[in-house]
Structures are given as C-alpha cells and as structure tokens.
Design goal:
This protein is about 35% helix and about 15% strand. The protein contains 4 helices and 4 strands. Strand 3, helix 2 and strand 4 (about 80-85) form a beta-alpha-beta unit.
Length: about 130
C-alpha cells in the first residue's frame, strides 16, 4: 500500500474511514476492506482522493456496492470534494493480504464445522435412502 499527500485530507484519515467499509459478506464479523487487504493504493491531491482496490474475485457480486460505499464514506471527510474508487485488475488478491484480525475473525473453529459436516452427511444419507 502506498500513499502520497498534498494539502487537504490526511492519508490516515482516509484509511480510518475505509476501516468502516465492509464487503457485505464480512460485515457481520466486522472485517473491513482494509483488513481484507482490498485497498491497493490511496492517492490524495488537494480535495481529490483516488483509491485503487482489488477484489477477492472478479465475480464479486458486491463490487458496485463496495465502490459506492467507499466513495460515500470518504466524501464525509472535511476537505474532500471528489473521490474516485477504481478496481485494479492486474493485482490478484490472495489470503496473505488479510490482516491478522481478519484471519482471526474469519476463521471458523473446528467445533463449529464438525456439527455442520455431520448434519450435511445425515441429510445426504437420507436423500440416498429415498
């Protein structure tokens, strides 16, 4: 992640606002676009903020929602007049981009997974018996 700033809003302020932006799939667990490693670059020039993001998948059904949310949230900062959020396609997302917090919050403990697996197996057995 890189930053460049001139007069206007501070990079840290933009990042703090982006910490409140969530992919709908991660909102319940409070994992922001920053924690997911989706923010590739933030450029600030006066009252203009440009944000480059990557997606976890090119098929993300919430891409438009994310772009709009990030734009609206950053526009709430004093001194910001224009925000442009762009998807960068040349950088692939991988789980290594996630913060430690994201990894912790998105991990499903084995004790939660085992009952789900067992229920699925029982359902499959019942379907097979019919």
């Amino acid at each position: 992640m890189t930053a460049s700033t001139t007069v206007g809003v501070a990079y840290d302020d933009v990042m703090a606002v982006l910490q409140r932006c969530y992919d709908p799939c991660c909102k319940e667990r409070q994992v922001s676009v920053v924690d997911m490693g989706l923010v590739e670059q933030v450029r600030i020039a006066g009252t203009q903020v440009d944000i480059d993001i990557i997606l976890t998948t090119g098929w993300c059904p919430f891409a438009l929602h994310l772009l709009q949310m990030m734009e609206e949230e950053v526009k709430t900062l004093p001194g910001v007049e224009q925000v442009q959020v762009n998807i960068t396609w040349n950088t692939p997302w991988s789980p290594e981009r996630m913060s430690a917090l994201a990894r912790e919050r998105l991990r499903l403990p084995l004790e939660q997974l085992l009952p789900l697996r067992e229920a699925r197996m029982q359902h499959a057995r019942k379907e097979g018996a019919q």
